[in-house]
DNA sequence: ACCGCGCATTGATCAACGTCAATAATGAGC
DNA sequence: GCTCATTATTGACGTTGATCAATGCGCGGT
């Protein structure tokens, strides 16, 4: 992942991320409470992370796709603090954390890179807080779809046509809404002509207008 | 902050956090968009952090008190991504980030400690996401007060009697509520006999019941 | 290809919270 | 100590999204 390394350094980073692991759709990569030992970089596939509170409430805290790092929440306590579950058959690289720590003490580019990744995770979480704290249902949905679109396009896929890997209920959990509200919101965006929904397939017709729909009503 | 260092290491960490800075009530410690250079550890006082979105929406993302670290959000982009503002006259230690990076490459206890702090920040943000996504107004308020109580008690102050440093509006922004809802919620908790509110002064009478009030209604 | 269950859509109703408004109380600054 | 602006409280009403319910559809598994 990091750039600007020497041949030799690249080799050492490569052997750091030696082992791989396949996770079948629906199966956990890790569960809350399990001892933390490794970070995971997604090679292929799609995951959700979910926290469960003491009183049984569940909340999806994020959806992760290829190239993204999972498990950062476990460093602080030495135990994973959320469940990570594959939304489709997936493959991850296993990154033993103590070896990452050692290596990042020697390769400062790697250290910087790792710090940046953690920091961006904090910023990402804060923007979700803003979404949950200030946006209305349809705005949240628009923001969610625009975010997905951008992440797909940065991976070389279409910005305007993609398949959702998660259910309405999971989207709702992530956005702080009930699944019915998600469904209604999608129908409404469709009625307004911004996109077409057919189950999990999304075709965005007016990406600009969808971005505008993230802001308070006209 | 870290423990288990040798005399010499402690000395080096001490000189890392050399300079201090006073921030008067209402003044910013840093603003969104400013270049990121340092982290800040609060010595005394009380801060809020606040993000402002493109369309002008504001959201308080946290309240920080003595011993807590601010500025982690700036590492990823090299710019601060939120405003940090003092809620009372405060003093912070300035921690130049590149020197922290260097030193943490040499002192692995420091490195581990720093990674844990960042990770805990991620976990904290996720629990706020859960609060915003799943809790009702009164539950959010109860959770907020219990959290404050715990943080005060871990600093040697009373768990049951303290002064809020922030306005109802700031509490509301943090909890995704309007200030009127915050005010009504506090009045309601008072009517139920769980606590007494007099402006910014809070006296918790039944901490256990307040904790129960964080869960869905009886 | 078929079956069955999980997932999605849509409608009707309701409660929670937001909005608007009026008033009261505080405390910061002079 | 006084004054004014800021902050807080409370009420009446409106809106949004949750809840309850019924139906339909699609996809995974065999």
Entry summary:
Chain A is built from seven helices and nine strands, in the order H-E-E-E-E-E-E-H-H-H-E-H-H-E-E-H. The first copy, chain A, is of the alpha+beta class and 218 residues long.
Walkthrough of the structure:
Two copies of one chain form a homodimer. With 218 residues, chain A is α+β, with helices and mostly antiparallel strands. Chain A has two domains: 7-131, Jelly Rolls (Sandwich), CATH 2.60.120; 136-212, Orthogonal Bundle (Arc Repressor Mutant, subunit A). Chain A contains seven helices and nine strands; from the N terminus they run αββββββαααβααββα. In chain A, the strands form two sheets. In chain A, strands 1, 2, 3, 4, 5 and 6 form a six-stranded antiparallel β-sheet that branches. In chain A, helix 2 crosses helix 3 (108-134), helix 4 (137-153) crosses helix 6 (179-191) and helix 5 packs across helix 6. The interface between A and B is large, with 48 and 48 residues.
Spell out the blueprint of helices and strands.
The structure is a homodimer of 218-residue chains.
Chain A: H1 7-16, E1 20-23, E2 28-30, E3 38-52, E4 58-65, E5 69-70, E6 83-96, H2 97-106, H3 108-134, H4 137-153, E7 161-163, H5 168-175, H6 179-191, E8 195-198, E9 201-204, H7 207-212
Antiparallel strand pairs in A: 1-6, 2-6, 3-4, 3-5, 3-6, 7-9, 8-9
Helix pairs in contact in A: 2-3, 4-6, 5-6
The structure holds a DNA duplex (30 and 30 nucleotides).
Rg of chain A to the nearest angstrom?
Answer: 19 Å
Give the total of domains of chain A: 2
Most extensive interface between two protein chains, with residue counts: A-B, 48 and 48 residues
CATH level-two architecture of the largest domain in chain A: Sandwich
Number of strands of chain A: 9
Low-confidence stretches of chain A are none
Examine the coordinates and then state which fold CATH places here, giving the name of the CATH topology of the largest domain in chain A.
Jelly Rolls
Residue-averaged pLDDT of chain A: 94
Proportion of β residues of chain A? 25-35%
Shape of chain A: globular
Text of the CATH class of the largest domain in chain A:
Mainly Beta
Q: Find the CATH superfamily of the largest domain in chain A.
A: Jelly Rolls
Distance between the termini of chain A: 42 Å
Structural class designation of chain A: alpha+beta
Largest sheet of chain A: 6 strands, antiparallel
Q: Regarding quaternary structure, how should these chains be classified?
A: homodimer
SS field, number of helical segments of chain A: 7
The helix/strand order of chain A is HEEEEEEHHHEHHEEH
Helix content of chain A: 40-55%
């Amino acid at each position: 992942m990091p750039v600007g390394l020497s041949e030799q350094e690249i080799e050492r980073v490569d052997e750091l991320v030696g082992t791989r692991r396949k996770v079948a759709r629906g199966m956990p990569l890790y569960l809350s409470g399990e001892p933390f030992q490794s970070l995971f970089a997604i090679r292929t596939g799609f995951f959700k992370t979910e926290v469960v509170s003491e009183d049984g409430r569940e909340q999806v805290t994020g959806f992760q796709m290829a190239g993204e790092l999972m498990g950062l929440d476990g460093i602080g306590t030495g135990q994973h603090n959320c469940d990570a579950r594959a939304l489709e058959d997936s493959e991850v690289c296993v990154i033993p954390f103590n070896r990452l720590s050692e290596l990042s003490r020697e390769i400062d580019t790697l250290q910087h890179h790792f710090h940046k990744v953690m920091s961006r995770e904090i910023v990402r979480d804060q923007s979700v807080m803003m979404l949950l704290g200030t946006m209305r249902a349809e705005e949240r949905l628009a923001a969610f779809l625009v975010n997905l679109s951008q992440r797909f396009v940065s991976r070389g896929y279409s910005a305007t046509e993609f398949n959702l890997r998660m259910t309405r209920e999971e989207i709702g959990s992530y956005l702080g809404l009930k699944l019915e509200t998600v469904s209604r919101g999608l129908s409404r965006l469709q009625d307004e002509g911004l996109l077409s929904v057919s189950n999990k397939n999304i075709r965005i017709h007016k990406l600009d207008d969808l971005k505008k729909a993230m802001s308070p009503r006209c």
